[in-house]
Design the sequence.
């Protein structure tokens, strides 16, 4: 990925430091398309490049993080509808359902304890597998989110009860 970034930058009459190319390659998670987009974002952010330049997150990743935060802060039908709209937004911007499942799961389990992490991960795997068999990924994403909301709300309520509230 670093050599491709060097090549693309050379063709664009840009010079990119090796350290920045390596950080972009690491952040791209072995995805060449994402690496080139990150390099372009760095170019827009600042040129000439610096060795210690910050590699920005992709907008859709920030959007997904915000979506997960919405799920964690409120578990209600209204919030589920809002999250559904955000999933539609991601799908219409060609973010694959598998990536959405993976990223939303990563963000959600960060707020769970050990036993809940295992249950949520198994749940996500189940709904992701079903989404590959079905025709509409949105149904499976929404079903996973609704189930997570129910489990997480129950987890929070049990935690409050154990504390005497």
Sequence:
């Amino acid at each position: 990925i670093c050599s491709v970034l060097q090549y693309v930058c050379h063709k664009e009459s840009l010079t990119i430091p090796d350290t920045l190319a390596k950080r972009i390659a690491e952040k791209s998670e072995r995805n060449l398309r994402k690496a080139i987009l990150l390099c372009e974002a760095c170019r827009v952010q600042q040129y000439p490049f610096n060795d210690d330049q910050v590699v920005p997150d992709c907008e859709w990743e920030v959007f997904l993080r915000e979506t997960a935060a919405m799920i964690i802060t409120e578990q209600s039908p209204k919030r589920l509808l809002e999250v559904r709209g955000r999933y539609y937004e991601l799908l219409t911007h060609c973010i694959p359902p598998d990536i959405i499942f993976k990223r939303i799961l990563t963000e959600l389990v960060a707020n769970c304890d050990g036993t809940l992490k295992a249950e949520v991960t198994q749940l996500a795997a189940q709904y992701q597998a079903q989404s590959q068999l079905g025709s509409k990924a949105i149904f499976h994403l929404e079903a996973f989110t609704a189930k997570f909301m129910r489990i997480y709300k129950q987890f929070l309520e049990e935690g409050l009860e154990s504390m005497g509230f």
